[in-house]
Amino acid sequence: MRYDLKRCVSGDVLIDGLMSGYTEAGFIIISTFKGGDTSAKRRREYQISSRSLKADIRKSEYSHIPVWAGFDVWDEIGYLESFPEQAFLVFNCKNHEKQEGIAELISLGQVWRKKYDIEAFFYAEAGTSGKTHYITAKESIELNFGCISPSVAVDVYFRYLHGSAKQKYPKTLIHDEGGIYLARGPNSINEASMRPGEIFIRP
Question: Which residues contact 108 (CB under 8 A, 6 or more apart)?
Answer without folding.
Answer: 60, 62
